[in-house]
Every structure is written in structure tokens, then in C-alpha cells.
Amino acid sequence: MKKTLLLAGITGLFASMAHAQSNVTLYGLLDAGVTYTSNDQKQSGANFRATGNQTSGSRFGLAGAEDLGGGLKAIFTLESGFDVFDGTADNDRLFNRQSWVGLSSPTWGAVTIGRQYDSVVDYLSPLSLANIDEKGGGRMFSHPFNNDNLNASFRINNSFKYASPNWGGFSFGALYGASNDENGMSSNNRAYSIGAKYENGPLRLAASYLALNEPNGAGNSGGAVSNDYAFQADKQQTFGVGGSYAFGPATLGFVYTQTTLDSVQNFGAGSGLSTVGSSDMKINNYELNGKYSVTPAWLLSAAYTFTDAKYRTTTGDQKGNWNQFTIMSDYSLSKRTDVYLAAAYQTAGGDADRAFIAGGSGYSDSDSQVVVTTGMRHRF
């Protein structure tokens, strides 16, 4: 009897130790609502649609860590996005948002490999209201065509990432996405990025750089960037800086990004830029944003973004611009559930004759567009 109790005690001890040394967490988010679009080129008049993922992408995932001793841990994340209205995946991948494994240390930082976010998303995006995970923003706040990926419309395959520890508020990271080209062309669809941030009390600063070589490269769909990439271009480079400062319940921020595209084949079809073709394009985005906590449960946010683009079409050099105003009210019913109402207004100018707000039903049939959405989010 005593031996049986002793054996049971030892077994329970090892079980509790194993539980303490490793863990796996199931998590997720559901975002669903309805969206009004004032006009689009496919149909006359306004329209209403059932929409999901307008503020934060619906997802479920598994995240885990195993204590290897001495502060070293094995870590992983598997995450899939989907449409809450019909249950379909965002694309044909099982884990379309993230799938990576790696090692982390409080002294040396973390090294991870797999399908991951680039440094623009990791470091600069949290300062923009287009960020997919910061409360008070989302897809409608993204810059035209999400040209700088602040809204994380694509991830990097075959990637190796390093993230440093936090040294007095400063940290940095870098990523390389391999081409994996079967013909040995290492530049055909590869990516690399670097970013850094500094946080000290109410002050936040960040900078990042992303380069994509031949994204969606011919004959290499298994490269760093796959079919969720927005443009057809031989190369994309995005650089950005940003900062924010909190004044009690209010936060004021600014983000600047510049995206250059080499040998553009297609950009914004139906937007007045669809005649680009074998030319270079430079896009500047200037975002001024703010948040205000009316109460601990009620958050107001707003952003103004000015975007200008210089490009060459079959008819010569042209310039286009977009002005966008976006506001949002978010109310938390609990720590895990909130409801939101957001509205965006955009005008196109110069040689760009079509407005296009992300989350709407499509390109406008004029130089202006209004999109209004309301819905709820639940986290688990």
C-alpha cells in the first residue's frame, strides 16, 4: 500500500513538472458585422453586405512553449484565418496566417523559422491604425491598396527571423525569406526586412525596411511571397518611420512610409492606374492618427492619411493622390467582447480618378467613396 502511494506520488510529481515546463494555448478571434458602401464600379447606387475581418482578422491558433532550462525555450505558433460567415479559409493554406517554430532566450533573443510577418508588420505597424492587432483600427484604416503592408495582407514564406531582447526599451529584428527556386535562381521571389523600435513610458518610436525581389516570380509560386501579394512588379521596397506619444487618456501618432515598385505590370486595376505597365512607381503615405479613451470601456480613434503616387503609363508620366479620413468608436462589453462602428471617406485626385477604401465592395465609380461598418469582436 505504501509503495503504491509512493509510486502515485512520484508519478504526479513528474506530471506536474512536465506541465510546468511546457504549455500549449488555444486562442482565437471572431470579427463579424455589416458594411455599407456608397458606390462602386460594378453596380449603381449604395449596397450593404455581411462582412467579417473589417477590424481584426478572424482566426484560431495554437501557441506553445517548452522550457529547455537556463531560460532557453522552444516556441511555436500555428494560426489560421477564416471568414466567419461561411467558414472558408482565407486561402488554400491550413495555417495561412502563421506557422513557425524556434528558440527564445531572455539573454540572446529569439530565432524562428517558417511562415511569418515581416519587420514592417512587427515594428512599424503597431503605430498605425491600420494594424491588425491593435485595438481601435483595422483594414479600413489601411493606406490605398495596402501598398506598405501595414495591414499585413501578406506573410513571408521560407523565412528565418531574429528578434532581439529588450534593452532599456530598445529592440530590433530582421527577417530573410528564401526563394527556394528549383532552378537555383536565389533572387527569384525572395524577401528580407529589418526593423527597430524604442518604447519609454508614453513615447513609442519605430522604423522598418522591407524588400521583395520578384514577388510572385514566374514559375516560383513556392517562394517567399505567394498569391496573397497585391501587385505585379519586379521589385518592391518599403521604408517607414513612426512615433506616438500618450497624454493621459489620449494618444497622438504619426507614420510615414514610402513604397517603390520597379517594372510594375499591374496596380489597382479599375482605379485609373491599371494602364501602368513596365514602369517604376513611387508611393508616399502620411498618416496622422489619434486615440482617446472616453472611459476604460469606450475608445475613440481617428486617422487622416494623404497618399501620393508618381508613375509612368502608356500616355506618359502621371501623378495621383488620395485623401482619406477614418473614424471609429469601439466599446468593450467585457475583456473579451467588444462592438464597433467605423466610417471612412476617401477622395482621389490628380491622375487617379477612382477612390478605393479597403473593406468596401470595390473601386468607386467616381473620385470619392464612403464606407461604414459596424460589428462585434469576440476573443477566446
Q: Summarize this, please?
A:
With about 375 residues, the protein is mainly beta.
Radius of gyration from the alpha-carbon trace, in angstroms: 23 Å
Summing up helix and strand content along with how strands pair, one would put the structural category as mainly beta
CATH fold call: Porin
Query: What is the CATH class designation?
Result: Mainly Beta
Q: Could you give the count of β-strands?
A: 17
Structural description of this entry:
This protein has a single domain (23-379), classed as Porin (Beta Barrel), CATH 2.40.160.10. Mean pLDDT is 86; it is low at 1-19. A hairpin with a 6-residue loop joins β7 and β8. The longest helix has 20 residues, at 2-21. With 380 residues, it is mostly beta strands. Helices cover 7% and strands 52% of the residues. It has helices spanning 2-21, 119-124; strands at 22-37, 47-52, 59-69, 72-81, 98-105, 109-116, 156-163, 170-177, 190-200, 203-213, 235-247, 250-264, 279-293, 298-313, 316-332, 337-350, 368-379. It has a 16-stranded antiparallel β-barrel with strand order 1-3-4-5-6-7-8-9-10-11-12-13-14-15-16-17. Residues 13-348 form the Porin domain. It is a multi-pass membrane protein. Its main location: membrane. Homotrimer.
Which properties best describe this structure?
single chain, about 375 residues, mainly beta, Porin, 16-stranded antiparallel barrel, Porin_Neis, Gram_neg_porin_domain, membrane, transmembrane
